[in-house]
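Q: What would this chain look like folded?
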Amino acid sequence: MSQGIADELAGICLGDERLNQRSRKVIEALAANPEASINAAVNGWGDTQAAYRFFNNANVSPEQILEPHRQATLQRMQEHPVVLVAQDTTELDYSDHPTCDALCLNQENRFGLYHHVQLVLTPERLPLGVVATHTFDRAPETLGKERKDSAAQKRRPIEEKESFRWLEGYRTACDLAAQCPNTRIISVADREADIYDIFLEAQSISGPKADYLIRAHEDRSTPERDREASRRTYHKVREQVSSSPLLATQTITLSATPKREAREARVEVRAIRTAVKPPNHRPGLEVITHNVILVQEVAGPGDGTGVCWLLVTTLPIDTVAQILTVVEYYAARWLIETYFRVLKTGCQVERIMLETKSRLLNCLAMYNIIAWRVLYLTYLNRTCPTLPCTAVFTDEEWQPAWRVVRKSAPPLKPPLLSEFLKLITHLGGYNNRATEPPAGPQPIWIGLRRMLDYSTAWLIFAKEYRDVCN
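A: My prediction, written as C-alpha cells:
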C-alpha cells in the first residue's frame, strides 16, 4: 500500500532527482502511519531532518507535489463515462501551534487555514483523486469588514472575493473536460457555490465545458414580473418549481453527519427549466437559463435535518430517470465531507507542527494524496469487491496480516479484496457483523497502519531466518 502511494508521485519533477526520490520516501513514511507526527512516522532523526529540509526546500511547492497525482487522476478519469468533481472548503485550526507567519480564521485569536479541495469521484462514489487545492486565511484587520460594508462587498469584482475559489473550481472542471473528451465532467458543490458568475461562465463557453450541479442558496428571481404583487416584484424560482407537477417519489440514503444519524429519506421530486435574472446590484448582466430540481422530504423527522434541496444544473431533465440521476449525483457529493474527516482525523493534519506556512502547505499536499488513498481503498472494496487483493497490496503486506488474523498459513491463491479488507478492518477494531454496514475509513486507516508494522517485521525477520537456516 505504501508503494502504491509512492506511485502517485512517479512523475514528480522538482529539478533534482535526489529531491524527487526524497518526495517518494517521505510520502511512503507518512502513509505508513498517517496518524503519527512527522518525527514518529519517519525512520530516525536523520530521516526526520531530511523530511523537514524537503518541506523547507525553495524548489518544492504544493502544486508540484500534487501535479503527478493530478496526472494519474486524469488517467483514471478517462476510463469512466461520467465523473463528478466535488469541491468544498474545510477549516484547519492551528491556534495551539500556529506557524510564525500564521494569519486568522474567523477570529483574531484563531489561527489556521481554509482548505479548498476538488475531489474527483465516480457516480458510484469511488474517489479517483484530488485535482486541485487552494488555501487562504484572513488578515486580522479584515475580519468582519465584509459584514459591515455588504453593499460595497457586492460591488467588488469576483476576483477580489474569497468566493472566487468556486468559479476557479468550475474553470478547473472545464479544463478537465477539455482533456477528457469522452468523459462527462460534472462540477458539484454545496450552497456556497451558488454564484451567478458560474452560471454566466457556463452559458458563455462555446467549446468543451463541464456541467454544474449546485445546491441553491439564493432564492433567485425569474425575468417575469409578478404583477399581482407589485410592478417591481419578480416571480421567484423556488415558488415556480414548488408549484410544478410532482414527477417522482424516491427513497434516498442520507449519510451520518454531526447533526443527524444515517437514515433513509422519502422525498418528492419536482423539476423545471427556467430563466433567471441577474442580481439586482448587477443589472447589466445577461439572463441565464438552467434546470432546477426541488427535492423535498415527506414526513421528515421534524428536528431540522429534513431534506429540502433546491438544485440548479445544466444536466438534462427531460425524463424522470434523468432527474433522479441528477439527485443521486448530488447525494454522492457527501463523499468530500468523508474525505475531510479522513484528512483531519485519520491524518491528523491539524496537529502538524512546522515553522512556516510554506512548509505546512507542502506537507499538507502530501496528506491530501494520503487521505485520498485511504478513501480509495474504502470504496474500492465496495465497488470492486471481486478484485484480487494483490491489485492493491503486495505479498509482503497481505500475507503477514493473514497469518496474524487467521492464525494460519496464507493461501496459495491471494484472497479477494473484499475478504482481505475484512482482515484489515478487523485489525482496525471493526467487528464486521452481518447486521453492520460496510466499514468506513477509520478502521481501514488503523488496520493499514498495523498491517504495515507486521509487514516490516515479516520482511526483517524472514530474511534473518533464511540467513540462519542457510
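The mean pLDDT is 91.
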